[in-house]
Structure formats: C-alpha cells, structure tokens
Amino acid sequence: MSKKRKIRVDFKKNRQKRTRAGDLTSRFHSQGASGVDSTSSERVRAKGDLSRRRTILSDVDENAAAGSRVDPASLLSIDLSECVPGRVVRVHGLESIVETDDGRSLRCGVRRLLKTIAIDGRGVVAVGDRVWVKPAGPGSDQGQIENVETRKGVVTRGYRRREHIIVSNVDQLLIVCSFVEPDLKPALIDRYLISAERGNVRPIIVINKADLVDVSSYQWVIGLYSQLGYETITTSTADGRGVDRVKGVLARGVTALSGQSGVGKSSLLNAIEPGLKLKVREVSGWTSKGKHTTTFAELIKLESGGRVVDTPGLRQFELWGVDPGELEGLFVEFRPFIPLCRFPDCSHTHETACAVKDAVSLGLIHIGRYESYLKLYFRRPEESD
Ligand SMILES: Nc1nc2c(ncn2[C@@H]2O[C@H](COP(=O)(O)OP(=O)(O)OP(=O)(O)O)[C@@H](O)[C@H]2O)c(=O)[nH]1
Ligand SMILES: [Mg+2]
Ligand SMILES: [Zn+2]
Questions:
Q1: pLDDT digits (tens, 9 = 90+) for 343-373
Q2: How far does the centroid of ligand 1 lie from the alpha carbon of residue 143, in Å?
Q3: Which atom of ligand 1 is nearest to the CA of 236?
Q4: What torsion, rounded to 10 degrees, do the Cα atoms 99, 101, 103, 109 define?
Q5: What total number of domains does the chain contain?
C-alpha cells in the first residue's frame, strides 16, 4: 500500500552552494526519502539554502525496507485527474510534441521537477517516451509533461561524455548502412548491435544502395551477420530490391531507423510509403559530408502497419556505459568459447590458452569481429573513428 508523504528535494546541484561536506542529493540517492526528510538535516542549513529546495508530495511504499534505495522518478506524484497519457513523437530543443491517447497533438515543455531529478538534467524526454501531460487549458495546443514512464526498449549512445537516448520504447532497431557513399563500416554495425542488445531492442541490419555495387563481393559481410543470427537485408531504393522485405519487418511493431547520414534512411521510408514525402538529400552521393538532411527524430505511423522513428544521421556512434568485462557476452559468437579459456577472468586479449583467440585462428570467429572486440575493449570514452 502507498500513502502520500511530504519530502524535500534539491534543485539541480549546480544551482546550489554546498554549505557542508555532506551533499544532500547524494544522501537522498543512497538513503532514500527518509534520509532527506529528517528534520535534523534541515535545521543545520541557512534559510537561503532551504529556499532552494521544494516540498513535493510523494507516494511512499510502506512495505519498502527502511533505508532501501528509492528511484527518484518514483517519488514523483501527479494528480492524474488533470493529466492525459500520451507519447512523445518529436523533440525540438526544449519543446516536445506529444500525441495524447485521446487524439490531440500538444506542444509541451517539461515540468521543472522532472529536470531537477534527472541526473544533471540530461535525457529528460526522448522520442517514443510514454508521458503524462497536463494540458494548458481547453482548446490550447500547449501542455506540460508531468511524468515520464519507465522506458522499455532504448537505443542510446555516448555523446560528449553523456548518455544520449536516441529513441525509447521501440521493439526493433533497423541498423541502416550503405555499401558505398558512405562506405560500409562493419565496426559501426558491431557497436549498434551491442547497443541494441543492451537496450533490449531487436536489431535488424539493412545494407542499402545495392545498385551501386556488385553485391557478390560483399557476400562475406551479409553471410557473417546472417550466420550470427541477425536478420540482414540488402536493399536499393533505386531499383526497389529488398524494400518489401523491410516493409514486412516494420509491420511487426515499433522500429527505429538509425545509421550514418546519407545512407538512405528517409529514402527507404519513402520507398515503403511514398505518401510520407520525407525530406531526402537532393544530390545523390557522398560529397557534402556532415550535412544532415533529417534534423530531428520523428515517430511516424505507417499505413502498411507498424510505427517507425526516422532519426538524423549520426556522425559518431559510441557505446555508453559498457564495461570492458561485459563485452565478451555481447559478442554472441564468443559465448560458447568463453568457458573453455584457461583463466576464468580471461579478457581474451593477451592471455595464453584463450579459447576465443583459438577460435579466431581456426576461423570459427571472424577476425573482423574480434578486432571490433579489441577496439572496444581498449577504447577510451572520447575516442571515435
Ligand atoms: N544509388 C542510390 N542512392 C540512394 C539510395 N537510397 C538513397 N539514395 C540517395 O542517398 C542520398 C541520401 O539519402 P537520404 O534518404 O536523405 O539519407 P538519410 O540516411 O536519411 O540521411 P540523413 O537524413 O542525413 O541522416 C539521397 O540523395 C538519396 O537519393 C539507393 O538505394 N541507391
Ligand atoms: Mg534522413
Ligand atoms: Zn579467453
């Protein structure tokens, strides 16, 4: 059972001067609401300091063990009678477009307290998020996002030393690349596969612009990923090959398209549903590097079934929050060999009697995949291709 209880929360750390060595925010994280609520911790603070906090009403689970860690987001309570549920379909800087379940489209800001609680204010709202919105008034097209529900399938990357949530609540990720213009980068595919695996999203690999190459000379890449169990589709929006197959994949649920700029993500969606008329780069080719044609992520409903999120091309796709020791399990074909290494904590880099390295030399693990592993294992966060 839960009951309402008053608790005090801090504003963003950067607005608050520390008056004591102990920082309430971190104590709040480690001790839960009870630590913050204790009157003794308030009395030692000057008035000005107190005014930088706010009192909120929160749902408190009476059955929770005392001192157990509380998810800050769960402390948010909202008056549901004033809010409507909906989904973020687009984010433009500080403004998010939310489609409410009752069919309205509202331009929304985000409740300040949500930003306060999000770590450093990042990743507050992402396309695909299920949210609760308080409409500004009857007939108004504005509203405020009061709460964000827990995300299920997410695609994230590391960007400028932070986590960037590219999209949330998707079932599938279409990793879109091209054979040429820009050139195929298997190492990039590997990073996307790992991100999808960790984000609980089913990855599908699409290699576009098949009309520009002799596909047989790339058969090894297609064969490699297919053998690993990943659905791999060769497409061309110029001659239409593979487009129906992708259409079938998209009908299965909610899918995000991601990949470098210029690979043909928007072209592919236009080929599947010409009525979308998504903006695509005018001049074919790969001359204007760095220019993004799609500038914001957008959730779109397809007539042929399913929903898709077209996203802007990414110049960099770095993994976020993956420990080197976690990597071995994210390379699916390594898994059968890991227990056969002599050392239980084998990193598969320098050790002797390493079954993974043996498998590489026997051709049971593709050398390119092993190189991807090594690169990620030794990568420093700020590095990129
Ligand atoms: N030859 C050939 N060109 C293609 C194909 N698909 C897309 N293109 C061209 O590639 C260019 C880039 O296509 P877009 O659809 O804008 O690429 P995008 O991935 O959406 O790019 P961003 O929005 O910048 O991320 C356009 O000029 C398209 O006409 C294809 O299958 N074959
Ligand atoms: Mg595009
Ligand atoms: Zn090993």
A1: 999 999 999 999 999 999 999 999 999 999 9
A2: 36
A3: 31
A4: -30
A5: 4
